[in-house]
């Protein structure tokens, strides 16, 4: 019982420390952040699509989008 209590205390302390480190790192990154250029985003997207799994996921999303567009498509009658 005492060992369990000690482990819980240690876990709680470790989680608090991890939370502090996360917050410090997050603030550090936020301060260093510069506005992202659109061209940089396109380059990142281009690099990510080199992975076969990502390409496959993008293809599935495109198919899903086409299906959704078709389902919500409405033709306006011309009189």
Radius of gyration from the CA trace? 25 Å
Helical amount: over 70%
What's the tally of helices?
Answer: 3
Structural class: mainly alpha
Q: List the domain count as a whole number.
A: 2
**How many strand units?**
0
**Topology order in helix (H) and strand (E) letters:** HHH
Major beta sheet, specifics?
none
Beta content = under 5%
What is the straight-line distance between the termini?
82 Å
Shape, per Cα inertia axes: elongated
Overall average residue pLDDT: 89
| Low-pLDDT ranges | none
Please give a structural write-up.
The structure is a single chain. The protein has 79 residues and is mainly alpha-helical. The chain folds into two domains: 1-33; 36-79. The protein has three helices and no strands. The protein has helices at residues 2-32, 38-48, 52-71. The longest helix has 31 residues, at 2-32. The radius of gyration is 25 Å and the shape is elongated. The model has no long low-confidence stretch (mean pLDDT 89).
